[in-house]
Amino acid sequence: MPAVFLAAALPFVVSPILLLFRRPDRRAGLLSAAACAGAFACFVSVALGASPATVALPWIGPLGLSFSLHADPLALFFALLITGVGFLVAAFATSYLDSNENFPRFFSFLMLFTGSMLGVVLSSNLMALFVFWEMTSFSSFLLIGFWHHRERSRYGALKALVVTGSGGLAMLLGFIMVGIVCGSFEIAVLAERGALLAANPWATPAVLLIIAGVLTKSAQLPFHLWLPSAMEAPTPVSAFLHAATMVKAGLFMVARLGPLLSVVPLWTPTLALFGLLTMTWCGWLALRQKDLKALLAFSTVSQLGLILVLLAPAEPDTTAAGLLHLLNHACFKGALFLLVGVLEHELHTRDLSLMGPLRRNMPFTWLLIALAALSMAGVPPMGGFVSKELFLDHLLNGHPLLALLAVAGAVLTAAYCFALAAGLAAGRRPDGPRGQDPSLSLLLPPALLVAATVGLGIFPDQLVGAPVAAATLAATGSSVTGHFAVWHGAGPSLWTSAFAVSMGLALWWGWWQKRVPPASTLIADRVYDHALEQLETRARRLTASYMSGILWRYCSVILLTVIVGVAVVAASQGFVIQDGWSSRHAGPWDLAVCATAILAALATLKARTRLAAILALGASGFSLALMFALSAAPDLALTQIMVETISVPLFLAVFAFLPPYQVDRVRRARPLHAVLAVAAGLGTALLLAASRSQRVAEPISSFFVEKSVDAAGGHNVVNVILVDFRALDTLGEITVLGVAAIACYAIIKLLSEKEAGR
Amino acid sequence: MMNNLCVLPVVIPMATGVLLMLTQARPALSRAIAISGNILSLGVALALVETVRADGIQVLAFGNWPAPFGIVFTVDMLSALMVAVTMVVSTATLLFASVSLDDLHKKNFFYPLFQFLLMGVNGAFLTGDLFNLFVWFEVLLVSSYGLMALGSQAYQLQETFKYLVINALSSALFLIGVALIYGATGTLNMADLVFKFPALADSGMAGVIAVIFLVVFGIKGALFPLYVWLPRAYYGPPTVISGLFGGLLTKVGVYALFRTVTLFFAPGSTFVLPLLSFVAGATMLLGVLGALSQWDFKRILSYHIVSQIGYMIMGLAIYTPLALAGGIFYIIHHILVKTSLFLVAGAVEKRYGTTNLRALGGAADGSPLLATLFMFAGLALAGAPPLSGFVAKFMLLRSGLEAANHLVVAVSLVVSFLTLYSMMKIYRYAFWRQEAENAIVVQGEPVRTFAIAALVTLSLVLGLGGAILLPYVEIAAAQLLDPVAWGTVVLEARVR
Predict the structure, then answer these.
(1) Cα(A305)–Cα(A221) distance, rounded to whole angstroms?
(2) Which of A268, A488, A604, B231 sits most deeply, having the most CB atoms within 10 A of its CB?
(3) ipTM of the complex
(4) Domain boundaries, chain B
């Protein structure tokens, strides 16, 4: 079995197995960690060339769908990141979760997510990619709502699903459009057909739809609202999904499809603009949070914006820088989330303004937080510094306004990083809750991530130079020109960087220290809440306005539809009635029976009690039977009599349970009813007459007359039709009567039993 | 090709139903007989599917009266697939019902009525005669009245009555339509009509008849604006019966639309397909908005029946091979998934005694397996990957875009989203939150769960293994799009 397939399938296999564990069994976590480690090892073997990178898996070939996996360097880059962080998070969560939590469920969902995320990066087919993309949204929904008894968890889970789910649907449409235009859903084939796309008028709408998917998934403006709410998830989930991996699916998509979609001029500037705006605005929002997880959430959004800016141009140098920062961010932000989880675990609060002096109480925890924060701030020699240098380099060569935004973003980032690290060091409240450094099993996973981000700062090229270069080549098709280094020489980007860090320091020291500004509700949140509320209210009003539960209204709708429909079509299709449609003249008896039927029908309308109405209706029915008898159809007449006989008692049984007979309620609608009734009656008569006049073929009935005696052996043609030519109809009708009889019997029996029981 | 196999899906339920009337007093025996009968029919249905795939359209002329004169059963791929899926869901429903209905129902003709319903449904799928179709509709309707009213609760009887009146109205319209066709063409055999009906286009009669039949099948199939009767009617009976109705009955109307529209109403008509396209969009949208307005598990599902029918009609309205195949895929997917959702509602109701979302809660803790099954089925209903709904929706979206029918594509995506939202509303209220106090552990839960799991697994199989079903629905679509070939085969079929 190819290692790629094994690695991708492992989480999906483990996920249901985990559900078999008993609730408080921590081994579920160990198994998950082992699965991640196993997958990681598989990917390493693929990366080293020890195992094929491509596996063909069919899905629905004729529709162009396949589940084939292709682990090119870009996919491997992400896959190693996912399984690596996944391993640490699973190990962390195993000790982190309280012993009364539902371990099997948590880790099962976590593995479902891991598998889906691997599917996103490994799929070589756009539709399979979409499948896994959506599955990450669903598993994220389940994980955010893990503590589902909390209202905020359910709210956050739903919001994440609403935002990413709607974006996903937009993206689906975009994908299908791209697939139709380019004639394939295979990403490798698509990459060569950019010219086809560029020449097609669908290109722009398709790209906009895909951008919607990217922005929602990666929580970019104006869809950033879901990520802070998603922080209701258990902290390991926040670290894994909402910092290190899932939110980067949008970025992965940009890297993966950039070369194809950047043929549309809109692609790069739109993404870059949204990325920059998000970076700056959400940096500002992060600075205003007191809740540590909220701070980290906004900071994540802001950092994702930064990476998006780098990936948007689909050029090798910026892409390499973007990938490096993506890796850095996964390390330092993953670590920060885990460490905040430790704080919450120890101190039972996440509020920055309630924290005691951490440097004294929990020195190791604080040190790790500080190192990770410094990396995020872009302070040398941390990993964050290296990639942020490259970012500033890129932006300083661009439009001055964009450069200004970028610098502002960097300043804000530095400011909230200092707020985080230094704010925790001294603590706002000397008497705040005291904790102590947790056990090694909780500290080791974040420590490893911090070590990684420090290492990435000191030896960036040695550690990840080759993989990033390979991934860049795979993504953009061209090679990186430069290489990573912590010391780039004293260029404008270094000065800008120094300026940003010192401005950030100043901002924190001079302003944030003195007054923690309160966080207000997001405008986007208010829009979201209002929209959902309006949706439900309006849906309710609209539905209530026509779903009355009143029978005559329903009948009116049906009759109106058919009458208007027939009238419109008849008028527009040139409906004509030809001559010679009267074949039989009515005699006095016919007229008398007709009059009786009409009078009985009118009497039904005028009846003051239900009983009278049913009897009058019966009279109308029996007149019809007479009419059949007069038209030389005794069989029909008998059938009609039988039907009347059965239906009257059935009506009687049901009527007992209807509300009192209210003639008044219907009075208002009487004119409408009269019009409908007359139109329906006259219309039917007219149509029936017309159908005879427009006969286009001889009726088949002559066959019955010819064959009745010699082939079927009967002299009464009607009887022969009933019991031979069309005996199946008769069988069906007999069944109808029989079933009606047993149904009546059962209803009446149960009714009388209930009466007796009362 | 003549084949006696065609009649068995009608004969077996009829015989089983009659037998079951005699074993009323012994529920265990009745259950065994009913399930055996179902499995037998299922086997026949699968054999029919394979026969049609291998040998093409199968015909059976009753009494050996040749095609336009006697009644024929015409089994093409669509018919065979519909019968097969009918037998699958009805078997699961039967299994579920056997452990969830009380003796009150079982000893009062539940099993026979159930079998007669199947007889009518299968007959409607198999027949090639317009009047005979009417007869099978009556058989299934009268059985459904019985099942709907079974229990004689006041609400049930009220709603059954409304259902009955509306269906009587629709039957009357059906008869008028049949009379018009016979008056003008002198035949009722569908194959014969393929050749004779187009001549009516000049006088406008074809359009009028099309409208009448669209309304008739629109009432049965719950299309805009004719679905008003459905949500309340399907709320009344025991949930397991709602499940069978919700999955199956409206689809008989949809099937009849697919059959008649492709055979005679769409070819040569300028307005039928655009009209259907509009109706499809309106049905989807208003149905899902109705679902959003509800706070009851069963009522939400009932509105979704309406909404989902819009997708099937969308496939019909786009009218390309891929679109029709997608529509048929959708029908099959929907029957399985919708029934399984109703069965989940029934299992939840058994456990907590209510389907009111505000009173429910915590079922994910109380019954995790049920929650998982609901999640799968709910996502499948919303067309989420990689379940069966996604494959069907993908085919519809793709064909809609290819046919440049942008409006209905856009509406269908919005409705997908709202469906997902609505399913998650059920999940959030019934399955999340603190577990409701009134949980009662009742017998039969393993059997119920098994029945649901079987249907959900099928949905997953049809999603991941869509390639298995695809050739069949493609054959079905190809047969629908070539009515002349269909008519010729039927008219020329003779005993070997």
Answers:
(1) 9
(2) B231
(3) 0.94
(4) 277-464
